[in-house]
Amino acid sequence: MKKYILSMAVLSLFYTKSDACAWSDPDYEYFNLFTQSIIKDKSYLPFLLTYSNRFYGDYKGNPIPDDNIETWKKFFNNQLNYAETENLVYKISMSDLNALKNGAPTNPLLQKLGTGFYQKYREGIDYLIEAKYLEPYMSINYVESPDSFYSYGPSKKQNATSIDYAKTVNALTSLYNAARNPEIKQRYGYQLVRFNHYTRNYDAALEAFKTYIEPIKQKGTVYFMALDQLAGAQRGKEMNADANWNFFQVFMNSKDRKESAFVSMKLSDTASFSNIMKRAGTNDEKNMAYFLLGYEGFTNPIPIMEKMYDINPDSEILKVMAARSINELERSYLPIYYYTSDASDNVYMQKGNADDHDTTFKDTKAEPAEVKKEEKLSFWQKIVRFFKNLFGGSKSDSVAGEKNDQSDDELLNNPDRIPFYTKTGYGYDEKTKDYLDDLEKFTEKTKKVSKDEYWQIADAYLKFLKKDYKGSSEILEDIKTTNPEYLEEIKRMKVLNDIVSHPKIDAEFEDHLMKDYADYFVKKEVKKDSTAVSDYDYYGETPSTADFLKDVLANRYFLQGEDGKSFLMSNKLSDLQYNPNSSLVKSVEDFYKKPNKTQFEQQIIAKNMDNVGNIDAFFSMIYGDRAMKQADFEKAKSYYEKAQGFAGIPRMNYNWTDKGEKITPKQYAAGEYNGFRDISNLVFGHNVWESFGSPETESMEAEDYSAFPFIKASMNKLELADALIQLKKIGNGTDEKAAKASQLIGNLLYNTSSLGYYRQLFVMDIDNTNGGKYDFWNTDRKNPYKYYYKNFLYTTYVEPDNFDLAINYYQKTLKLSKDKEQRARVLFQMASAEQGKYYQYEAKNAAKISYSDPQYSEKEQAHQAELDNIRNQKYRTYFAQLKSQYADSETMKGLAGSCSYFGYFLKR
């Protein structure tokens, strides 16, 4: 039986690193400030550091030279440039070459060369004609083993066995013997070795190399092309040690075949590089063997680099090893996001998640508290732990917008160690600092003996990572070079040292940024049709130097208490809708209203005050919503009066077409809730079952509003606030109408809390799904961000509900009402709000037990038992009262039948 399973052993040859999430690209997780590809020998570009692919592929306009094309270019006495030579060798057809041979070329390039070109290079053109005839057949025939783990199925592709073997060998042998030019003669020999290899005549391939290649005493490009084929034939004969050695020679002596030769070495011999080291005779061979050992190794590369230094400190491959080492350090020191312990370690619970919307259980409340709450962590929360900022520390627990007491020195001289990515995840590792110190010592030593300015640049960059900005700048000033790639790197590093070394960003320094470094901050606008479709880019743009500098400034502003500016360095004004916490909103508004903004503030920061329509109305809406959450209806009304020009919560529509993704601003239809208008009076009602995805007319039931004609069927927020003010006045009475008014206010406060059907109403959202509006944070801090706001959209934070506000209004109803059924309903609502208070307590007291603890299960169960006990003692007050005093009420009977949560409690 055929098995369509690709061996993991084979896969591991090509992917040495993996990520927990298949879509994650680690090469997008740092800023790449040190450009690895400035190495001079571009043939080693594939061996620079990457975690995304088997080989480094970002050549940035530096294609690896093709040895074969360069050799042909030289053969034609440089009469053709590189592109023309490539066209002649690889693209021009055999028929076009025959037309040239016959004196009637039709191809434009061949016409340009003229008919005399063939006469001058007759043997070369004749060889190309033969090579173009053979090329379609030059692939090895696939022979499947009966025990193969995978099957390609029948193949119709031509291969070397598709042409007559004897006829082809005789023709190539005859052409070999007739050729007079040694290089062309050797090329026919190469074709004989390759043809025998691809037809699996391995012995004949070995003999052809001995007969037709070796006698021609030339070890240039063609020789190593043939040696590559010989090694393949040797591997076919299981002469693995010889094959491996020959692939190693190809690796050493070719430019464009290094990747394939490396993979061939891996496939030929599992102990490949160790065995090569044993056979290495010359210093160059030993140096290259050390490089391969260091490249393939998973330990500290510096001991290997020391050995390479002893052989040749000017070695290009030593620079490749240094570039890889610097890149490894940079990934550890400069991740694109820094997270806080409060945000990243937070375990929060979600009630009524979007995944639960279609439930058919007619529950008016959530599942029994005895059912263990699932620990729900975001993707980033799972993979990233606490980071300290390279740029100067955190604001700690100071509230955004409040005065920060840190001194200038503290902003720069962060005593905490730099984070390092270990095999167990992100964390602090003293070995990283040691590694940086050791690499710096090696670089300082090497730059003294090497003639290449590369080592001075590397040394300056390592000092930058160590925050020795002065030392780094002094080295950069002394470098004398004309290499354009080096000059670009030096320029970038000077900018980095200048900006990062400033602890405070004031107006004077902002003017300096715009005068000297505007290119890093002013993004060139590309005009696009707003209705046009765009190609989808999952990751977005690769993090850049400009992104890094913006993060530095965002951190500085944050530490200086300028949260609004910090926020706008990384976000647009409309992003406030997702986490509208009051102190941050106030700081952003203060910046918006700031007079006499600097040029930097106007052009770089204020440009992110984007398309929210009426900005003043946008801020007023957020403030009005917060006042409503705090039951300050008079203040809410005053803000809503200023928010009547609100254009709607800014959202975009993303539609896929055959041409790509089409992005357009969301247009709210008439009667559709847009953040301000079209709010149903059901917001004053109660839910008959908990289904956040069902229409409001199915999940919610209206109360009797006949005594309150100002409660309209549909209202905007200004009308809603006015209705609440009137209800509050009526609720100050002592009659049944006052009791009902207080109940309606309590209902609205509960229904717009994190547990209610209308939880989106006062948190700038358009419906009750998604977002942080149903999170129960485990932090008492007013602001969960500690370093900057770049990860603003990756951290959900809505200011916690005050469930006591609803409970207090229900208490008034309970005190005044003489209606037993109404009192029972109100007690159930109070019990539900009390359950919200328990969820908040539980989140703040989450178990901090390591999964590696051998007693994890026992400790976790003990912690849950303690929580259960606290819940039953402190957070079941109104459930107990309802059970003991209203067991015979119709309301009680209805709840017991329709609410599984309440039914569970009654059975206890």
Count of separate DSSP helical elements: 40
Poorly predicted spans: 1-23, 148-154, 341-428, 530-540
Q: What is the global morphology? A: elongated
Helix-and-strand structural type: mainly alpha
Task: Give the integer mean of the pLDDT values.
Answer: 81
Helix fraction bin? 40-55%
Question: Which strand order do you get reading across the main beta sheet?
Answer: 3-5-4
How does this structure look, described?
It is a single chain. This protein is mainly alpha-helical. The protein has a domain at 67-141 and 158-297. The protein contains 40 helices and 9 strands. The chain has a 3-stranded antiparallel beta sheet with strand order 3-5-4, with no helix packed on it. A two-stranded antiparallel sheet has the order 1-2. A two-stranded antiparallel sheet has the order 6-9. Helix 4 (94-101) runs antiparallel to helix 7 (122-134). The two termini are 59 Å apart. The model is unreliable at 1-23, 148-154, 341-428 and 530-540 (pLDDT under 50). It comes from Chryseobacterium elymi. This is Tetratricopeptide repeat protein.
Features:
908 residues; mainly alpha; three-stranded antiparallel beta sheet; two-stranded antiparallel sheet; 50% helix; disordered N terminus
In summary, what is this structure?
By secondary structure, the chain is mainly alpha-helical. The chain is built from 40 helices and nine strands. The chain is elongated.
Question: Topology of this protein?
Answer:
Elements lengths: L7 H5 L54 H9 L6 H10 L2 H8 L6 H6 L2 H5 L1 H13 L30 H14 L3 H17 L3 H12 L7 H16 L3 H14 L4 H11 L3 H8 L3 H14 L5 H10 L4 H18 L7 H4 L34 H5 L24 H5 L6 E4 L2 E4 L1 H20 L4 H12 L3 H10 L5 H17 L6 H10 L16 E2 L10 H15 L3 H8 L11 H12 L5 H7 L9 H15 L3 H10 L9 E6 L2 E6 L13 E2 L5 E2 L8 H4 E2 L12 E2 L1 H15 L4 H16 L51 H14 L3 H25 L11 H19 L2 H9 L4 H9 L1 H7 L2
Antiparallel strand pairs: 1-2, 3-5, 4-5, 6-9, 7-8
